[in-house]
Amino acid sequence: SGRAPASGGQAAPDAKPAPSPEAKASAPWAAGWAVQRGAFATIDEANRLGEKARDASFPAFIDKVTRGGKPMWRVRIGPQADRGSAEAALARASERLKISGVVVPSP
Fold first, then answer.
1. H or E segment at 92?
2. Predicted confidence (pLDDT) at residue 93 exceeds the cutoff of 80
3. H or E element at residue 78
4. Are 50 and 44 in contact (CB under 8 A)?
5. How many helices (H) and strands (E) does the chain have?
6. Could you tell me the pLDDT band of residue 99, with boundaries at 50, 70 and 90?
């Protein structure tokens, strides 16, 4: 009908940030929860952990963030629709991969 959405006047473009082309696995952009397995200063370190998680049949993704003006690559498993599912994924991943992690909102 040509009217702008009630939420803010202008329709927001459906653009999503492009995942880093350096990462072998790109970040899914669905909202939910994920298990963060680590954050690394190099993409090579992140890719190694991401591959280890995928080899163990976990849906791993890598996203790039900037902290203190420096790039970091986060390795995450998920996303899961709810926190309880993410907690269960954390328990399975901790047992199979023998590394710690933390449940975080995703993206």
1. helix 83-97
2. yes
3. strand 70-80
4. no
5. 2, 4
6. confident
